Amino acid sequence: MEGLRMEAQATSIDLWPTRVWFFETQPDWEVNRQLAEEALAAVDMPDGAMHRACGPAPSGSIAIGRLNTSGGQPTPSTLHRQSPPSASKRRVRGILERSVAGQALKAHLFACARAVLGPWAPYLDPDHCENRVLVMMPGGFISTHKDSREGDLTCVHFLTGGGAGQPVNSVGTPRFVIEDPSRYFDEGRLPYEDRHGFSVHPRPGLSVFFPSHIPHNQHPYEGRTPHVQVVANFRVNLPSAIEERLFD
Question: What 3-state class would DSSP assign to 151?
Fold first, then answer.
């Protein structure tokens, strides 16, 4: 565990009535690669997908999920080996409790969550970290949703992505968008109105923290290799009648 610790840079930005935090480890932190490999193995990805997602994609590589056929007809064993798993099977819950690398990332994300909360960090529940890894295939997307049932503070940590060297707020693939909670993305916008979403360009080691009640989505993934990211939700157990003490 000691050798898996990583110092992270932290920045924050005030968006609408809330604040969004960004933490970033070194992109070559071994934990990112190890967890991406574990996630792909856990969802039984097609042959070769693990190498292409966790390392440089070979030139001329074809899209993931094509079937190898024999005489035009795939055999049952070929189908099992090459077909990409369903959306539900590309989601692995509790990934951070499965290995040393997962525990290292979990400790890192808890440290980031405490930094986000500042003086309220003592109220962070040390036993609550609902987490799952998501493997996105080419063409996959995530509809607008909230994680407020799972926690109070949400983190999305990217294990893969092509945004290295690009501004965080730039359009990448799969484009991650934090939405203005006062309106959904499918609502119209007048010409003089500002954009009501904040785009994040995924890259290995980048974590995004925001209140769990904030809606967010992920645009269709246009890459040719699987994309892997971890979602973690934390619980904040504030004292009773805290709003009255703070604002009355």
Answer: coil
Rounded to whole angstroms, how far apart are CA atoms 204 and 168? 12
How far CA 33 is from CA of 39, 104, 127, in Å, comes to 10, 13, 26
Look at residues 114, 96, 116, 98 and name the one whose alpha carbon lies nearest to residue 106: 96
Phi, psi of 200 (to 5 degrees): -120, 130
17 prior amide bond cis, ω within 30: no
**Are the C-beta atoms of residues 101 and 82 closer than 8 Å to each other?**
no
Residue 37: which of 108, 133, 122 has the closest Cα? 133
Q: Which two tokens stand for residue 42?
A: 């856990």
Segment 76-86, tens digit of pLDDT: 333 344 455 55
SS3 233: strand
> DSSP secondary-structure letter at 38?
H
Closest CA to 236 of 112, 129, 146: 129
| Global pTM value | 0.77
Count of other CB atoms within 10 angstroms of residue 83 = 14
Query: pLDDT tens for residues 12-37?
Result: 888 777 899 999 998 789 999 999 99
Q: At what angle do helices 30-42 and 100-117 cross, to 10 degrees?
A: 120
Q: Which residues contact 215 (CB under 8 A, 6 or more apart)?
A: 144, 145, 146, 179, 181, 184
Token pair, residue 187, equals: 């609502």
- Cβ burial, residue 14 (10 Å; 0-12/13-18/19+): exposed
